[in-house]
Amino acid sequence: MDTEQTGERSRLQLVIYGAIFVLSCFYLVGSLRLGLGNIANPGPGFFPLIVSLLLSLSSLVVTFQYILRLRSSQDRIFSSIEVDSSKFSKIIVVVMSLLVYIATIHQVGFLLSTFWLIMAALWASGERRAVRMIVISALASLFVELVFVNFLLVPLPSGILKV
């Protein structure tokens, strides 16, 4: 494997470790909102809190181990890391879309929020055909809504639609 492929792989692994950490932090915040209860009578957020803490701690440990392993080898991958602006902007679009999704799902509703999240993810992945993006987003949102509400009997926020 040449240096460029090794550098690309290293960057990808670090991005994945970072993404896992960020997602575990979101999970942690969500678990705190559910309420923890106490040891004798745990609330709905107690177990998710433990899982998110373990996940964030493990991702940090694995990240630091990986960085130490890279630095101990004689590769100078970190000196050759360049940020590709097009890839970075796609990551920013997806992360910002997720933050907007989290902030608006209760007010706007699951169906519309999920529709726009999928639209943003499709756009970030390079899809530019509007009709195709709309159809995929609508079908995926409706499918997930159908499965959760009708089959799994999980209520989802209806927001402004009040369906």
Overall pLDDT level: 80
User: Overall 3D geometry?
Assistant: flat
Poorly predicted sequence stretches spanning 5 or more consecutive residues: none
Q: Ends: how far apart? A: 55 Å
Report on the biggest sheet: none
How many DSSP H or I helices?
A: 5
Give the total of beta strands.
0
Q: What structural class do you assign from the helix and strand content? A: mainly alpha
Describe this structure in words.
By secondary structure, the chain is mostly helical. The chain is 74% helix and 0% strand. It contains 5 helices and no strands. Helix 3 packs antiparallel against helix 4 and helix 4 crosses helix 5 (130-151). The termini are far apart. The relative contact order is 0.09. The mean pLDDT is 80.
Give the tags:
mainly alpha; 163 residues; 0% strand
Task: Write a short abstract of this structure.
This protein is an all-alpha fold and 163 residues long. 74% of the residues lie in helices and 0% in strands.
